[in-house]
Design brief:
The chain contains five helices and five strands; from the N terminus they run ββααβααββα. It is of the alpha+beta class. Strand 1 and strand 2 form a beta hairpin.
């Protein structure tokens, strides 16, 4: 395992996760608040996206001001900013008709989509519109 700290960034390299271990105590002993939070986020992303250890992630955190999840308005704004003719009303209609992807998570009746899901949908929608 490699843990490299450069100026204000952290790199965690685990070549063989089944053989190497990450000592979370090391993070608490050697990193300040900002780098500690960043290192823990890197670990979460590593296990969620870069390994097959978590087959189907079912746990998500949505923090206020998070840029990782989009509500319907943010989803529509992203599509509009990327050249697609969507507003919140249109997206809402398409959502209720089942014409767009299912939300990644629903909290208190409000659907949220991961940023990566929104980006993928945007690219697929651009391709679909070119072929129509």
């Amino acid at each position: 395992m490699e843990i490299l700290v450069f100026d204000r960034s952290v790199s965690i390299g685990v070549n063989y996760p089944e053989q190497e271990h990450i000592n979370i105590g090391w993070f608490y002993q050697h990193l300040d608040n900002d780098l500690l939070e960043f290192a823990l986020e890197l670990m979460t992303q590593f296990f969620r996206e870069d390994t097959y250890l978590i087959q189907k992630p079912t746990f998500s955190l949505i923090r206020e001001g998070s840029k990782d999840y989009y509500n319907q308005k943010q989803f529509a704004d992203f599509l509009s900013e990327n050249g697609l003719n969507y507003d919140k009303r249109k997206l809402n209609v398409y959502y209720h008709r089942g014409k767009i992807l299912e939300p990644d998570v629903e909290f208190a009746g409000t659907p949220y989509w991961r940023k990566t899901s929104v980006e993928t949908f945007c690219e697929q929608e651009k391709i679909r519109l070119k072929t129509d």
